[in-house]
Amino acid sequence: MIDVLYIEDEMSLALIVADSLEAHGFRVSHKGNGRDAVIAFKHKKPDIVVLDVMMPLMDGFTVAQEIRKVDISTPILFLTAMTQTEDVVKGFHLGANDYVRKPFKIEELIVRIEALTKKVGTAQALKQYAIGNYVLDTVKSTLCFNDVQEKLSFREVELLRRLFEHQDEVVPREEIIRAYWNDDTYFTGRSLDVFISRIRKYLAKDERIKITNIRSIGYMLTID
């Protein structure tokens, strides 16, 4: 069963959409404002977030931005009457995966939700990565070496996974910052260097693993 966090302040519409989704086998948690939605997301991560843009207390763009600070994989689908091209572009830049304009047919929404959750489910099928003599567990947020586990933060896990998935390739600094922090004024290059240094220490027991700083460009993970 797919868990949907649905955020809509127009209660009559929310009731109709929630009932329709539940009738088609979805489990729906509805919130009427953005602030409660962010709290609900952090308390129990859903399979997908469906949200309006114009909401009280915190608008949908801000909700998406807050979610992407702690999670980069859960699909976000905007369901809104805001149809200007710049609004659509802004939504995608903030981490949205899809954009459905009101008015809409419930059948279209269901197809979009199923497509997004299926895609993420396939992408996340691999939960553990063998990195040299280490095992990175992205579910438990641990890095294991000879049965000794190191607990990693969310950003450390995602940064190490990204470097490993692009092994022997340079991952640009700007790409890392945009992917995990959205705003390069919040997360400076110097702070990124600190994170990289921390990950190097975690991996120090396997001398074959190296993370090289390509000056002014990015980082590259190699395993000899």
From TrEMBL:
DNA-binding region(s) from the entry: 126-223
Keyword Signal: no
InterPro entries named in the record: CheY-like_superfamily, OmpR/PhoB-type_DNA-bd, Sig_transdc_resp-reg_C-effctor, Sig_transdc_resp-reg_receiver, WalR-like, WH-like_DNA-bd_sf
Keywords linked to the UniProt accession: DNA-binding, Phosphoprotein, Two-component regulatory system
Modified residue annotations for 4-aspartylphosphate: D52
Domain OmpR/PhoB-type, chain residue ranges per copy: 126-223
Lineage top rank: taxon: Bacteria
PANTHER family: PHOSPHATE REGULON TRANSCRIPTIONAL REGULATORY PROTEIN PHOB, REGULATOR OF RPOS
Protein name: Response regulator transcription factor
UniProt organism field: Sphingobacterium oryzagri
